[in-house]
């Protein structure tokens, strides 16, 4: 049982109240005890309880009155009714109104302890179920992140090594590159994997509600706050919180996140005292936070707290070699999801996916494949089934396919695109990289990978490699 459980006893019989409190305290359960409803409600307002043990008959009302108030204002609190033998029917009616159970006087100490433990265990289980429903599918892990490009593997290597620690991580990458999936994988590889992983999208929640969503609020703290509410940070106790798109977070809330990271404390909206929280923080963003710091739109102290371990996720246009594997993976997933297990990909269809720069990255690729699977009219996906932007004949960079070939080499296609771009700009790597929509660094890596050294580029600048077929043969020969 969690040592943080709190039990409130409401009993006007002084001796029974003392005996019950001593019995539960002896079992290591934190208890408070009062004699009437008024004092019970004062305690509830200051610190919501996990369980209330209340007598049915009290000086200033009935245990049913407390039950109704709890069900309205503190729905996460369990209630046990204490009653005399002659009032058992009233206790049964109380259970119908929402009480967890009842116990009859004279109270047996062992029976009291067993009932309280069972109720608290049920309360804890209910909270965990609630968290799990808003949690993630346990199938996610590094093995679900598809790709073998060097840039991706470097990032996953860092993520794998940092997973076992509790250090704060900042995941940077364009929209659709898989930031949340990597964060989930880090959580699954950590010692916190049995506890919740919860995501807060800082850019999708209105500023007025974001503070409550993160930290929770107490009843009456603002208009519409009808009950006490736990925030995502508190719900993830012992686990991990992903602050997605943290670059969208208002400056005043950034101070609260800094305090959470430094002091492990939160303060609910409307509360007067802080609460200690044990969670790991992972942040994600598509923005350049260092530039935002210079512009004064992101706190410098928070930035340096977040960037202890930065993980950069490459865009899909910098990992074209992963596209065939991704296409096959998403195709298998989508055809089963939409009940089309007999659907096939036509021969030569995969290269169509490599001629597009994918500004929406992996997410856009998955959406395009899902749409194609849903709308395909036959038993085989052909180029006519693809969205218009994926049809090779509509692209500016045309790659003639050999209709008699059994297969097409994606490496050869990529080599040809690079060589064509270099020829177009006379061997100028900066202009060729811009034309191919990739970074200069990525192009240099590709040139080294395909054996296109300085002599080849010099020859291009001298205009000695003008024939495209010669380019391909030369690259293959160098590769061999």
Topology:
Blueprint lengths: L5 E5 L3 H13 L3 E5 L2 H10 L4 E5 L1 E2 L2 E2 H11 L4 E6 L4 H9 L4 E4 L4 H25 L16 H14 L5 E4 L6 H10 L8 E5 L5 H9 E2 L11 E2 L1 H4 L4 E5 L6 H13 L1 E2 L8 E2 L3 E6 L3 H7 L4 H7 L2 E4 L10 H15 L6 E2 L15 H15 L4 E2 L28 H15 L4 H7 L4 H10 L4 H8 L6 H12 L1
Parallel strand pairs: 1-2, 1-3, 3-6, 6-7, 8-15, 8-16, 9-12, 12-15, 17-18
Antiparallel strand pairs: 4-5, 10-11, 13-14
Helix pairs in contact: 6-7, 13-14, 15-16, 15-19, 16-17
What is the CATH superfamily label of the largest domain? P-loop containing nucleotide triphosphate hydrolases
Structural class category: alpha/beta
CATH architecture of the largest domain: 3-Layer(aba) Sandwich
Q: Percent range for helical residues?
A: 40-55%
Quaternary structure of the protein:
single chain
Instruction: Describe the largest sheet.
Output: 5 strands, parallel
Rg over alpha carbons = 31 Å
Overall average pLDDT: 83
Strand content: 5-15%
Shape: elongated
What's the level 1 CATH class of the largest domain?
Alpha Beta
Instruction: Kindly state the number of beta strands.
Output: 18
CATH topology of the largest domain: Rossmann fold
Residue windows where pLDDT falls under 50 for at least 5 positions: 132-140, 393-400, 464-480
Helix count, DSSP H or I runs of 4 or more residues: 19
Into how many domains do the coordinates divide?
A: 4
* Biggest sheet, spatial arrangement of strands: 2-1-3-6-7
Distance between the termini: 65 Å
